[in-house]
Amino acid sequence: MGEGTRIKLADPCVGKPEEDAVLRVLRSGRLVAGPRVEEFEDRLASFAGRTHAVAVSSGTAALMAAMESMDVGPGSVVVVPAFTFPAPAIVAAFLGAEVRVCDVDPATFNISPDTLSPVLDNDVSLVVAIDQFGVPSPAIHIEDMLRERGIPVLVDAACSLGSTLEARCCGSFGKAATFSFHPRKVITTGEGGAVLTDDDNIAARVRRFRNIGMEDGGFLSLGLNLRPSEIGAAIGLCQLDRIEDIVERRRALARRYRALGLDLQGSPDNTELNHQTLAATLRAGADRDALIRALAHEGVEAQVASYCLGSLPRLAKKLNIDDTRTPVAKRLHNLGIALPMHEDLKDADVDYTVGLVHDWLKRENPVK
């Protein structure tokens, strides 16, 4: 955030309850993987309607632990939507799998049965369905599509805690799902993540993997130190206490943005969104990066919405990805913009931001 920024892109809402909770942890002398973590896991599992929630040190750690527990490794083929933060693809490749990308729906920015079909061969081991910016992916339909083939679905629900699809909480879909609690997410633990599942074996493997392969005092398998902190869990518990209020404020802000005429990310029917990110797309030919600079000049923080994996040269070369096969993801990569969205945002801030965007679009007249 620059010195002149007065309207932040994101701003985690923490206060006296979080401060008091952290102080209690510091005084307890137990800072890692203790009772606060266990309580946080129980609350997450209950909230999402799953049997198990296993907390880890980050959202990327959650993806790593989940994929490892689902036997992703050399010889595996993992399908990932092309429009995403690169973490799911990087984790799959790090574990030794081949990464195959599919395009996304132009309205929801998510994977769909139609975009998945062209890359779905018999060699696919796992499909990652991402709830982009908190909009639920059609995981139910993708699971139905893959059931006869025996291909599991991992839902990257990093952004979607508090969203629902057909009255079910995000995080409840897929063989397993992952959450992130990075400060830009709807609730935060400072940094952290979790794997949610109804599968006892997956949960046990994730717990062992996060603890360097240890279980019952012995080293039973390979693993990493991905343990969560008690401090982060204490913060997360306070945030969970307020999640309904946090999400409701975000929904009100999103309604205001939409009423002011921006071309925003869409969502399927029967969904309620948490609006983790306020993502808009510009008209073809617009210089999105110039708009971000113009907003910054006026004190408003914005950034690119997300990335097309095939449009990141070094990563695309490493993973052998061609962005010409994912035109929607490529367009969103070039024209997508994330605008301020957090619960402390004022209505007047939304009006000011959208006014700047409309003024810039009129002034630049970017249609070619």
Describe this structure in words.
This protein is α/β, with parallel strands linked by helices and 368 residues long. The protein has two domains: 16-240, Type I PLP-dependent aspartate aminotransferase-like (Major domain) (Aspartate Aminotransferase, domain 2, 3-Layer(aba) Sandwich), CATH 3.40.640.10; 243-364, Aspartate Aminotransferase, domain 1. Helix content is 39%, strand content 15%. The protein is built from 13 helices and 15 strands. It has a seven-stranded mixed β-sheet with strand order 1-9-8-5-4-2-3, sandwiched between helices. The chain has a three-stranded antiparallel β-sheet with strand order 7-6-12, with no helix packed on it. A three-stranded antiparallel β-sheet has the order 13-15-14. Strand 6 (164-165) and strand 7 (168-169) form a beta hairpin.
Brief overview:
This protein has 368 residues and is of the alpha/beta class.
Describe this protein with a few key phrases.
alpha/beta; globular; Aspartate Aminotransferase, domain 1; 368 residues
In CATH terms, the superfamily of the largest domain is Type I PLP-dependent aspartate aminotransferase-like (Major domain)
Shape: globular
Provide the CATH topology of the largest domain.
Aspartate Aminotransferase, domain 2
Number of strands: 15
Oligomer: single chain
Number of domains: 2
Radius of gyration: 20 Å
What is the count of helical runs? 13
Major sheet attributes: 7 strands, mixed
* Strand/helix succession: HHEHEHEHEHEEEEEHEEHHEEHEHHEH
Structural class by SSE content: alpha/beta
Termini distance?
A: 32 Å
Based on the coordinates given, report the CATH architecture of the largest domain.
Answer: 3-Layer(aba) Sandwich
Average predicted confidence as pLDDT: 95
